[in-house]
Specification:
By secondary structure, the chain is of the alpha+beta class. It has eight helices and 25 strands.
Length: 434
């Protein structure tokens, strides 16, 4: 039986906050992240010198003489155009927490990259230009973030230095954005509104002396304090089987383990587990983690389970605790973010990649398409690039799934074109058809 201290140690080891920055083009996302890395002293000296040298040729520099966007815009095409095209991942830490940042594109044509970057995030920073307020792309990013089930939001009103650090401008934008929150039926308690200047460093890591009217937290304050577990360890146990591991030596010739990432919940030695779809069950005999055994594991840990009995389990199956089974699904409805320049059409065959499973599927209908500007539902017979819709699917063989609102891993999938093998959409299951 695990101790309270063991649980605390596990949570400490996986207390990594994944967050993404989204916004319209030139709102300052890369500059914000660069400023965050610089002020938290997470830049290597040689990298800083290289950026300082390049910054001398640019006009968009802070008081330190640095163009902070250069710290994240890694592609040559990005540096030439001064925009973010690909999803740039960055890693840094403070004394309180480790972070993984996904700096996502602002251009409309790269919205699909934004979906990729935000899919595993615990928090989204929605960046707004104080001079422009809320734009169409801001609405799109807010909608996608809500559909992806991201639980925490920072709405950062950037470039406050260009509006004389005006409280009235900030308050007006906050009021306008709260109307979007109401339309999306999101919890207002999950939103932090922060006035910032990424270029000057106001309210990013350090408090602003230019906005003494703002008494709230800085961006880094929120990032360090937000709960990344979100009670995921208290949800039903789910572990998609990625590999079946057998020993290749005489000493452990009877060893047979099932490896995978714990999607949610917790598991301990002695728990009774059922494998789906075979519905065979057994008790957990051993939990292996790299070269050591452990008594207990929780969500977001990669482990290897060994059972007391031989049961029919293979890659693509799902392990659950007995009495907490997921649904065996052959038809479902899902919110779909279409990422391909080819049109999405019903009655066309696709491949669905769900956890470690690959299944043939066919779209049987488009229930509605969401209007990005009004969030209203409209009828549609096909979908184009960046469209978001609710779509019905029928599968050739069943998958073991939850609703996306209950589990972001077992409730999500990607859609693959059967001919080109390209990923064409990301989906989130909203309803299971009995």
């Amino acid at each position: 039986m695990t101790t309270v201290q063991q649980e605390k140690n596990i949570k400490r080891d996986i207390d990594i906050l994944r967050f993404t920055t989204v916004g319209s083009v030139d709102d300052g996302k890369s500059t914000l992240i660069g400023r965050m890395l610089y002020d938290s002293k997470s830049i290597f000296e040689d990298q800083l010198k290289a950026v300082e040298k390049t910054s001398s040729k640019r006009s968009n520099v802070g008081a330190e003489g640095i163009d902070f966007s250069l710290l994240t815009d890694g592609l040559a095409a990005e540096r030439e155009q001064g925009i973010t095209i690909d999803v740039a991942y960055r890693y840094f830490n403070t004394p309180r927490r480790k972070f993984i940042i996904a700096d996502t594109p602002g251009h409309v044509q790269y919205t699909r990259n934004m979906v990729t970057g935000a899919s595993t995030a615990h928090l989204t920073i929605i960046l707004l230009d104080a001079r422009k307020g809320i734009l169409d792309q801001s609405r799109r990013h807010a909608l996608i973030s809500s559909l992806l089930g991201i639980p925490n939001f920072i709405v950062a009103v950037n470039k406050m230095d260009l509006v004389d650090f005006s409280k009235e401008v900030f308050d007006s934008i906050q009021d306008d954005f709260m109307q979007l929150v109401d339309k999306l039926s999101l919890d207002k308690k999950n939103f932090n509104f922060i006035p910032i200047s990424a270029l000057c460093g106001d309210n990013v890591v350090n408090k602003s002396f230019n906005m003494d009217w703002y008494n709230g937290p800085t961006i880094i304050d929120v990032l360090e304090s937000v709960d990344v577990q979100q009670d995921i360890a208290k949800k039903p146990f789910r572990m998609p089987v990625q590999y079946v591991i057998r020993a290749d030596n005489d000493v452990h010739k009877d060893f047979r383990g099932f490896a995978g990432l714990v999607s949610s919940g917790s598991i301990k030695v002695g728990d009774e587990v059922i494998s789906l779809p075979s519905k065979m069950s057994s008790k957990v005999k051993m939990i292996a983690d790299f070269n050591k055994n452990k008594e207990f594991a929780i969500a977001r840990e990669s482990i290897n389970l060994v059972f007391e009995d031989e049961i029919d389990t293979s890659r693509g199956d799902l392990l659950c605790k007995l009495g907490e089974e997921a649904s065996i699904v052959k038809e479902f409805k899902a919110n779909l973010c279409w990422m391909s320049e080819d049109l999405f059409k019903i009655q066309k065959k696709y491949l669905i990649k769900h956890t470690s499973n690959l299944v043939k599927a066919m779209a049987t209908g488009i229930d509605y398409r969401l209007d990005i500007n009004t969030y209203e539902k409209a009828s549609a017979v096909e979908l184009g690039l960046n469209d978001i819709a609710n779509v019905s699917f029928k599968l050739l063989k069943p998958i073991i799934a939850d609703l996306y609102s209950e589990n972001r891993i077992t409730g999500s999938f990607i859609l693959i074109d059967e001919i080109s093998n390209n990923t064409v959409a990301a989906g989130m299951i909203t309803e299971v058809v009995a």
